[in-house]
Amino acid sequence: MALITADRERFPDTPWQLVETRYDTDGAGTLETLFALGNGHVGIRGAHWAAADVELPGSFINGLHEIWDIKHAENAFGFARTGQRILYIPDVNNFTVVVDGESLSLAESEALDYRRSVDFCTGIYECRITWQCRSGARVTTTERRAVGYASRGSVGISLEVATDRQVSLDVTSSVINRQDQPVEDHSVHDPRRAGRHAGRVLLPVRLDGGDGSLRLSWEAAESKQRVGIAVDHWTSAGHQPFETLVDQDDSSVRYVLAVDADEPFRLEKSVSYAAGRTFQDPEIDAAAVAEDALRPVSDIFAESEAHFRDYWATSDIVVEGGRPGLQQAIRWNLFQLAQATARADVAGIPAKGVTGSGYDGHYFWDQEVYLLPYLTYTNPDGARQVLEFRHGMLPEAKIRAKELSVDGALFPWRTINGLEASAYYAAGTAQFHIAAAIAFATNRYLWATGDTGFRDGMGAELLIETARMWISLGFFGKDGLFHIHGVTGPDEYTAVVNDNLYTNVMARFNLGAAAALEHAEITHEERQLWQAAAKRMQLPFDDRMQVHSQDNDFMTLEAWDWSTPRSKYPLLLHFHPLVIYRHQVLKQADTVLAMFLQWQDFTAEEKQRAFDFYDPITTGDSTLSACVQGIMAAEVGYSKEALAHFTNAAFIDLDDTHGNTIDGVHIASAGGVWSSLVCGFAGMRDQGPVPFFDPRLPAGWDGLAFHLKIRGRLLLVRVSAGAITLTVQEGEPLEVDVRGQRLIVAGQAVQVHLEPVAEPEPTVFPSGLPTASIPVVRGKS
């Protein structure tokens, strides 16, 4: 059921904000995700400040996690051994507001007026509520929040209480350890959701406080990572705290005073976090480090405003025309990308960013295939830092490769600390294609930036070690072709197969890119072997259907029963994996994704036939699918299908279409929204001789405009129904290709006329399985 689009009175269409104008318990946990704030390092969910009004509140620091030993019911060599899970850090977004003896909450008090918003322009959250108190007083509370950017561990919160008459006010500001509070382990019923630890996780190291200030730190019981927090309070008119209490799970500062109608009470809460491996040294006081980084609340708000002012100047994507609310959805997704990546620094990007604990805060291949395109062309320094983070995992990846009897480096399917954390190998370790994702993102970054230092150092190591893995994983068969067996591709509904097309296509790219390097570590024999494997890579093709097969056996599988009711989707929650594996049904785009990423390797006819065959049997149970299906629909020429898939992707979280947005934003899908606009409708393709554009603007759209940071230039791209206009706004002239026409683009706009793209006739495939024509022999009665 749709959330945002279902009630535009409650959630008005405002292109630069997400606004809620009426409180309702419907979707409360999902809205805590949608109104979350973050900077890639620290995140705070968009929960209300009163305990009675929250569903799944919390705050997170990227990479701060606990570990435990995975217990397999039936163990085997090489299974993942160490579980990892992101921690709920001590949460500062907690207030109790008591007016004339009444504790205000949306659950139990009368609210006359209500409005909350998150402003994409400033990164500031605001919630304003006017209460009709039982004492007769009319009170308005206004809470505002922001996270720091220059000071990435900072959070600033202000709470103002205004009244129409004198009232007795009692306000308590708390820091709550939510990690060790007993809650349900939702992962028991849904593997996409976060699990919980059985025992206590955060052990107190320092608990100090007084006069409205708190200095606290904890250590994770097993990972030994530490988190420190420093909190200072400031009040209008210099009100002193009534009491300051310190506890390992609930520390608080309380104010008791009279408030007059003409003098609102304002409380500012300045917070600084310090966390990570650095603080495992017992000589380092994490709380003291946090204290040194404390900033006034006004400075934190100013940092957020300055960051987003610069961000939108080059990262906004403007759609002219289109359905109402689409521009808001696009900007909300772009806002989430900024919040997930801006200050991650040398770290991975969790699947939910820092907005929730879904997928246990793990890093997947998502960041390389779905997030790094966005980062590479909007924040190339940020893209390099993610690749540096992957490079930092090479020692563990080389050890993991040996465990699986391959050379080079085998990166973990899901991880935080570099060790494999996926206990289900069929949909985890078997997805060897993560190696090619890292190599592909590396090559894209080098192509887009010309960063020779990274190319000759870390980049070369990533390409070489992943190529060594592929050449030892695969083999030359009796047919003379190079095969890769026993792998799982992106489509997790078809597992542990031979010659998965996506895997082979991406491995071929990886081997070729490594072979093209001029690097002293590559021997002549090794280079020749890589080139031969790439040249002779097996790419499954079904002669009867005249379409590339997802793997060697995919076309022999039984067709899925498409009369299965929608209540049984996603299939992974209602059918045993073995039931799904033996049917011809996809969780997400697989072969189609290969043809998008390796766009130069397939003909237009091959792409159309693949889209026509696979799109109808793709469930979209993965949030990574809609954007890719839309991009390829646009390239093929299916304008309506492209727009439908894109719209689906744009509203995945805003409408909670997959039912698990409560656990955090689907950050990779948000990255896919960026790619859908830039690569789908503007038709941008990279890693060729020059940047290539082949626009496919949907019917009804008047225009599309965005910037790309590419090879030291800032390129402005404007697409209309009949033309594309390119301008280099910063840097030297740039050569580009528009539908085969080479152009030199400089400071003066260059416009190219675009002929309409005719929609092709859909492919008609042979009906029935190859055995369908065998007559049924019935016995005599």
From TrEMBL:
Belongs to the glycosyl hydrolase 65 family. Residues 331-674 form the Glycoside hydrolase family 65 central catalytic domain. InterPro entries: 6-hairpin_glycosidase_sf, 6hp_glycosidase-like_sf, Gal_mutarotase_sf_dom, GH65_N, Glyco_hydro_65_C, Glyco_hydro_65_M, Glyco_hydro_65_N, Malt_Pase/Glycosyl_Hdrlase. It comes from Arthrobacter liuii. Keywords: Glycosidase, Hydrolase. Residues 20-275 form the Glycoside hydrolase family 65 N-terminal domain. This is Kojibiose phosphorylase. Coiled coil: none annotated. Residues 684-745 form the Glycoside hydrolase family 65 C-terminal domain.
